[in-house]
Design a protein that fits this description.
CATH topology of the largest domain: Immunoglobulin-like
CATH class of the largest domain: Mainly Beta
Shape: globular
Helix content: 10-25%
Order of helices and strands: HHEEEEEEEEEEEEEE
Largest sheet: 6 strands, mixed
Oligomer: single chain
CATH architecture of the largest domain: Sandwich
Number of strands: 14
Radius of gyration: 23 Å
Distance between the termini: 69 Å
Number of helices: 2
Length: 173
């Protein structure tokens, strides 16, 4: 009789430990514990949850253009963005480039960003022989109600100068 009780107690302990271990494994995934608790997955807008890159865009009369594309990692919740990113800072090989960027375009259009819904914004730079090379842009994304905590960073070759302006976030890559 005692042997049966010991086996039953041991089996119950194994089941409880296995259940606790399963909970830990779920918490490590972006959607695991939060989704199980009904909270949804973390936001695509958080800097750690999306990928970015800078590519050269087509030039227009008097300006160079660079496209900053944001792609959400799978498993994250869509979010809403609006207007041009703020606090844009440029650097070259880790050293700050002393160019302050303004904004252009409508700042109130809202776009959805998430897995399968990439977005982009434009960096518009006046044609000038005095431009400074850069390979990094750090920025803070805006929502219709404020800003996203944290700073996103995009990498790619570009040239910036006085008069550089950042366009609003738009749908598509």
């Amino acid at each position: 009789m005692r042997t049966v009780q010991k086996i039953a107690a041991t089996a119950a302990a194994v089941v409880l430990v296995g259940a606790a271990g399963g909970g830990v494994a779920q918490a490590a995934s972006p959607t695991g514990a939060a989704v199980a608790a009904g909270q949804g997955a973390p936001s695509s807008c958080r800097p750690a949850n999306h990928l970015t890159k800078i590519t050269e865009g087509p030039a227009t009369s008097g300006h160079h253009h660079y496209r900053v594309t944001l792609v959400a990692a799978p498993g994250y919740e869509p979010c809403r963005l609006a207007g041009s990113p703020t606090g844009v800072r440029f650097s070259h090989h880790g050293s700050p480039v002393g160019v302050t960027a303004g904004r252009y375009g409508p700042q109130n259009a809202v776009v959805t960003f998430g897995p399968g819904h990439p977005v982009h914004f434009d960096i518009q730079v006046p044609n000038s022989p005095a431009g400074a090379p850069a390979d990094e842009a750090a920025f803070t994304l805006r929502t219709p109600d404020g800003v996203i905590p944290g700073e996103s960073t995009a990498y790619g070759r570009l040239t910036v100068d006085i008069g550089t302006a950042i366009g609003p976030v738009q749908p598509g890559a």
